[in-house]
Write a structure and sequence with these properties.
five-stranded antiparallel beta sheet; 18% helix; 417 residues; 10 helices; globular
Length: 417
């Protein structure tokens, strides 16, 4: 696919994340407008509530876009999603006859505040990157061997929807229990081994019924779109608490997502297959569609006071072993009902080379091999004032479909008790 041209000139630039090919969905406000739905196009944002009010877009009898979330549209289903995307193409393409009516409803992106693009119903995080799983085994157990179940099922845990925040929200260093290997008792205080996890988040757009499993193909059709996701992790708290039930406080203090939902339709030209399987998956996990996407991903770190950010990792979403659709299918196979607005974290995305590792635990090999930033500073884990920036895009012929940025800055822990 090549660039689709728009009369919004900034959307035709080769380096914009938001060409006409993309049209991601977000929520914005201004000094005079309450939070409402918007669509990014180049360096502008299209006010969907205003278009709906004047009748340029009509999806039903009731307003859909004058609210600070996209959940109402999600629940309308794939046919409505497709109809809206087609209508936006009509309004914004270079040959549109409606430019004069639409132009007043475009706002400069620099003049708005972005908010959470959805109400997160539930949040589940997976452990579906093979290189990451092998690295974690080597670091924590002295062996890269995978757990016995790993090649058979997408492993996951239920997280906290209340802790999912939009890009730009500061992350407070969490307090919790930790235990040194040579200590008799645990201690309480701020995490000293605060980490990141580079992930992609899949947003479930339509629900499934309690007690009713869904196929991988059905799951793929249910996914509304994707966001960048940073699942912040307190490794020292997690290491003390996770056996036998898995993550709890070490993961519950914050998960950041990018403010723009890039739709599955926009990513469709970049679909790629899942990797060859070491062991054949059970039939219920079979699919007729390619479930991964060719998405270039980057992690940058910007220490407070540094002149610029340093790139510390670059990898690609196609490194994953399990797709979001396979994860969603497995999530529902026992009868768990899925809801519009459910968020599924892919799991940490790492590649085979150190430059592709998606967590600081891997990049510093648990602190034994600190890495050096462009400024000459070294890091093993996050320090107060550090900002992490995630970026991602799929590269087309003369255009790219991007996510913008997912940004979070570490603030000092709350003094407690």
């Amino acid at each position: 696919m090549t660039l689709m041209t728009s009369w919004v000139q900034s959307a035709n630039n080769a380096d914009t994340d938001f060409p006409l090919n993309n049209l991601p969905y977000g929520v914005f406000s201004t000094d005079t407008l309450e939070a409402r739905c918007g669509v990014a196009i180049g360096d502008m944002i299209l006010d969907m509530a205003a278009l709906e009010e004047e009748g340029s877009i009509t999806l039903g009898d009731e307003p859909v876009f004058d609210v600070p979330y996209w959940n109402d549209l999600m629940e309308m289903g794939p046919d409505t999603w497709d109809a809206l995307r087609t209508r936006l193409f009509q309004l914004l393409s270079a040959d549109s006859t409606e430019q004069a009516r639409i132009a007043p409803h475009l706002l400069p992106a620099d003049d708005v505040e972005l908010h959470m693009p959805l109400v997160v119903s539930e949040y589940t995080d997976f452990y579906a990157g093979r290189q990451h799983a092998q690295n974690m085994g080597a670091i924590l157990r002295g062996s890269p061997d995978l757990p016995a179940n790993w090649l058979h099922i997408p492993i996951g845990y239920n997280g906290r929807a209340s802790s999912v925040v939009v890009s730009g929200t500061d992350i407070l260093r969490p307090n919790g229990q930790t235990k040194a290997p040579d200590a008799d008792m645990p201690s309480f205080g701020p995490s000293k081994r605060l980490d990141i996890e580079l992930e992609l988040g899949a947003i479930v757009g339509t629900s499934s019924d309690f007690g009713v499993p869904i196929t991988v193909d059905e799951a793929d059709a249910m996914i509304f779109g994707y966001v960048l996701l940073n699942d912040w992790s307190a490794r020292d708290i997690q290491g003390w608490e996770y056996q036998p039930l898995g993550p709890f406080q070490g993961k519950a203090f914050g998960t950041s997502i990018s403010p723009w939902i890039v739709t599955t339709a926009a990513l469709a030209p970049f679909r790629t297959p899942t990797p060859p399987r070491d062991k054949e998956l059970l039939p219920y996990l079979n699919s007729s569609v390619d479930g991964l996407f060719d998405i270039n991903l980057e992690v940058q770190m910007h220490p407070e006071g540094a002149p610029h950010a340093s790139s510390i990792s670059k990898t690609n979403y196609r490194r994953m072993y399990y797709s979001a659709a396979e994860q969603l299918c497995h999530h529902a196979v026992g009868g768990c009902g899925m809801n519009a607005g459910d968020l599924l974290g892919s799991g940490t995305i790492s590649g085979p080379n150190k430059s592709e590792y998606g967590s600081l635990l891997e990049l510093s090999w648990a602190g034994r091999e600190p890495f050096t930033l462009d400024t000459g500073e070294t890091r093993s884990f996050l320090e107060d004032g550090d900002t992490i920036i995630l970026k991602g895009h799929s590269q087309g012929d003369g255009f790219r479909v991007g996510f913008g940025s997912c940004v979070g800055k570490i603030a000092p822990a709350v003094k407690f008790p």
